[in-house]
Amino acid sequence: MRIAILQRDAGQRGLIERALTQSGHACMPFSDGIALAKALAASTVDMLVLDWQGSRLSGAELLKTVRAVNGNQIPVLFASEDDSDESVVRAFSVGADDYVSLPVCPSVFRARVNALLRRAFPDRYDNVVLEVGPYHFDMRRQTVTVHGKPVELSGTQYRLASLFFANIGRVLSRDHIYAMVWGRELHTLTRTIDSHVSRLRVLLEIEEHNGFRLQPVYKSGYRLLRLQDEAVSFDERAAA
After folding, report:
1. In this structure, which topology does domain 2-121 adopt according to CATH?
2. Which pTM does this prediction carry?
3. Is the peptide bond before 103 cis (omega within 30 degrees of 0)?
4. Tag placement on the chain: N or C end, fewer CB within 10 Å?
5. pLDDT tens digits, one per residue of 134-150
6. Where in the chain is CATH 1.10.10.10?
């Protein structure tokens, strides 16, 4: 998972980042709330770990914006030296999912983070099989079939496909995709993602007759749409 960290103290920020990377998560560390807010405007993450106080923009203020834009989809955990009851209560009142005091115990911290992620993304944690329409993913063997027919994918192609199908309907930014599939942050413009997406459409026949559309999102990244969900959403808007 890709997790953004806001923490003023460099030592505590490093401790949090190490604890998360040891669990296989990709991290985006920030010391400044405004810098993180700008990054979130152009990028997507799976979770936020915020400092209560923050620099220039507090974690509480940032969370209000995140909840207004993304609702409750992204889990948010506060990690702060301020462990007063007042701050904890305020954090939950503005939409926090959990609150821990610094310094963190790495093993306990990882367990709390993974519990929040498991609740937010159950398909990516609890299932060894992902079955959506004609697509069947075996997470253990890292294999996929379409209408029961095996499709041979490279490791990169499988990671890309499983990322999209585990996040149906969700916009994934290009740097999010790159971090989760290639294992490192995207620092320069590249057509690598586009060429892999194009090839994946063909290999998995991600087309209307199979009930899905993999579409580019302007100035962001890509989104896998289930056409049945799209039709339901259109009908609901028309009825309103």
Report:
1. Rossmann fold (3.40.50)
2. 0.84
3. yes
4. C
5. 999 998 899 999 999 99
6. 127-239
Q: How far apart are CA 156 and CA 182, in angstroms?
A: 7
pLDDT tens, position by position, 18-71: 999 999 999 999 998 899 999 998 899 999 999 887 667 778 888 888 887 777
Name the CA dihedral angle for 39, 44, 45, 49, rounded to a multiple of 10 degrees: 30
Domain(s) labelled CATH 3.40.50.2300 in the chain stretch across 2-121
Asked whether the beta carbons of 172 and 163 are under 8 A apart, the reply is: yes
Task: Compute the distance between CA of residue 193 and CA of residue 168 in angstroms, rounded to an integer.
Answer: 18
Measured distance between the N- and C-terminal CA atoms of the chain, rounded to whole angstroms: 36
CA angle 164, 219, 207 (to 5 degrees): 40
Going by C-alpha positions, the residue among 39, 143, 169 that lies closest to residue 29 is 39
> 3-class DSSP state for residue 204?
coil
Specify whether the CB–CB gap between 108 and 94 falls below 8 A. Answer: no
pLDDT at 235 over 80: no
Hey, which CATH number is domain 127-239, 1.10.10.10, 3.40.50.2300, 1.10.3720.10, 3.30.70.2190?
A: 1.10.10.10
- Give me the phi and psi of 80, to 5 degrees please: -145, 150
Angle, CA 170 vertex, CA 167 and CA 176 arms, to 5°: 80
Element (H, E) at 107: helix 106-120
